């Protein structure tokens, strides 16, 4: 079953010094994970590692893959729109259409149009 992804800032996570990890051993660390969900292991009070359950790691990886897929989809859409515009410029009558557009009156409909935004 997929867990919802909840990411906390490293400063907000429970901490344990590396010396406690050595003292308690892996079994003790896993008990702490069971109680607290995740643990920041510190060395001289500086974060060195975050230990999280495997299910949470899997949820993070899934979320990253989904975000990457959305970005790829958006990029593909932009690429498709660009290719369509480029194709219209490469048509045999593109020059004639552009000249006709430039020589014709502007249709502003009461709006000011300037720069790349028009």
UniProtKB/TrEMBL annotation:
InterPro entries: Antitoxin_Phd/YefM, YefM-like_sf
Organism: Lysobacter arenosi
Top-rank lineage group of the source organism: Bacteria
Family designation: Belongs to the phD/YefM antitoxin family.
NCBIfam families, per the entry: phd_fam
Name this protein carries in UniProt: Antitoxin
Known function: Antitoxin component of a type II toxin-antitoxin (TA) system.
SUPFAM superfamilies named among the record's database cross-references: YefM-like (SSF143120)
């Amino acid at each position: 079953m997929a867990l919802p992804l909840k990411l906390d800032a490293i400063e907000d996570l429970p901490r344990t010094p590396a010396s406690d990890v050595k003292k308690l051993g892996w079994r003790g660390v896993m008990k702490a994970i069971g109680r607290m969900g995740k643990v920041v292991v510190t060395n001289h009070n500086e974060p060195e590692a975050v230990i999280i359950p495997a299910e949470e790691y899997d949820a993070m990886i899934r979320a990253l893959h989904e975000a990457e897929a959305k970005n790829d989809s958006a990029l593909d859409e932009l690429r498709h729109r660009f290719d369509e515009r480029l194709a219209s410029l490469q048509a045999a009558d593109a020059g004639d259409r552009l000249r006709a557009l430039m020589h014709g009156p502007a249709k502003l409909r009461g709006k000011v149009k300037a720069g790349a935004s028009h």
